[in-house]
Design goal:
Nucleoside Triphosphate Pyrophosphohydrolase, 16 strands, 23% helix, six-stranded mixed sheet, alpha+beta
Length: 268
């Protein structure tokens, strides 16, 4: 029997942190058959997602909370559902001629009824970077974040750029720090609403950070000891706070902090 994930207009799913997604069988909501999107197969069971804006008393959960509590399979399906339903909601008409789109291929293709153009879900690539001068880690904070919260720098890839060029540009634009070199480490889908975060480790000059007024409230270097204390939750009420564990930013910070322990003997 098919499994159905139901999301409202704000991207929240029916369910809660403890019990997981509400177990809804596809046969229970036949009226959603035409608009449901196939997410994939879990063994012999098909998983679908659909928009459901019913105003009822059933609990709903946002993706960030679910990602921190649900098993990886359910959280991944939720993330996929949120991204593709967001695309469907905002792409009802053709960007070339304005014609109405009809969806096919299990919900993953929008076909223009007027000009025949095909539309697919978009993903916006963005780099996220652990920048180091060899001894310290560069972190920045936005004014809207909780007090003392800092994170790695990030930004979207522009047309015509390589990922490495984006690293150099974004770090300099946000902090005035000059990157010498960078290397790719890992990625994370970030459906808020449709990004793919590409994680890098970068070596940089020990420039004094100057935060961009329109990007960051502050940017500064942190020592390995300061970062280690934050990772161990030893900062209490007056030290550094880091990104939540579900984000690739936290993983990049942990990777950088552990790099000294992984370095071969005699490495400079």
């Amino acid at each position: 029997m098919a499994r159905l994930l139901l999301l409202d207009g704000e991207g929240r799913a029916l369910g809660d942190a403890e019990a997981g997604p509400l177990p809804v069988a596809g046969a229970q909501r036949p009226e959603l058959r035409e608009d449901a999107v196939l997410l994939g197969l879990d063994g012999d069971q098909a998983w679908f997602a659909a928009r459901d804006d019913a105003d009822d008393a059933r609990a709903r959960i946002d993706l960030r909370t679910a990602a921190a509590h649900w098993p990886a399979r359910e959280a991944t399906a939720f993330a996929q559902a949120r991204a593709v339903l967001h695309w469907r909601t905002r792409h009802r008409h053709c960007g070339a001629c304005g014609g109405v789109l009809r969806y096919g291929r299990a919900g993953w293709l929008g076909h223009c009824q007027a000009c025949g153009l095909e539309h697919y879900p978009r993903t916006d690539p963005a780099v996220i970077v652990a920048v180091s001068d060899g001894a310290r880690l560069l972190l920045g904070r936005q004014a809207s974040w909780p007090p003392r919260r800092y994170s790695t720098l990030a930004g979207f890839v522009e047309p015509g750029e390589t990922l490495e060029q984006t690293v150099v540009r974004e770090v300099f634009e946000e902090s005035a720090v000059r990157v010498r070199s960078s290397r790719y480490l890992a990625s994370q889908p970030w459906p808020f609403p449709s990004s793919l975060m590409l994680g890098f480790l970068a070596d940089a000059e020990p420039d004094d950070p100057v935060p961009a007024d329109d990007e960051l409230e502050d940017a500064r270097w942190f020592t390995r000891e300061e970062v280690g204390a934050a990772l161990r939750d030893e900062t209490h009420s007056d030290g550094l706070l880091l990104s939540p564990r579900l984000s690739i930013s936290r993983w990049l910070i942990e990777y950088w902090h552990g790099a000294a322990d992984r370095a071969p003997a005699g490495a400079g």
